[in-house]
Amino acid sequence: MLFARKAGSSEPGLGFALVRRGYDCAQVDAYVEGLSQAASLVGPPTFDVARRGYDRQQVDAHVAELLAGRGWEA
């Protein structure tokens, strides 16, 4: 299950908390979208750390869950 943006929300992306230093939002958004659309397995990602990025623990947990559902060990 992907995190969805609330209708009419001004929050970016997939609903992860924004923190002072977290994963680059655009990279995470693109990876999760690509993973949900990929017919073949996509390996574990590497994200840059940026100011006002997504909470790293939330993203790591969500990506691990998505990859486990596809047979990957995160």
Strand content: 15-25%
Structural class category? alpha+beta
Low-confidence stretches: 1-12
Integer average pLDDT = 79
Portion of residues within helices: 25-40%
Strand order of the biggest β-sheet = 1-2
Sketch the topology as an H/E string, one letter per element. EHEH
Give the number of helices. 2
Biggest sheet details: 2 strands, antiparallel
Distance between the termini: 17 Å
The oligomeric status of these chains comes to: single chain
Rg calculated over all Cα atoms: 12 Å
Tally of strands: 2
Overall outline: elongated
Task: Give the helices and strands, then pairings.
Blueprint: E1 18-23, H1 25-37, E2 49-54, H2 56-69
Antiparallel strand pairs: 1-2
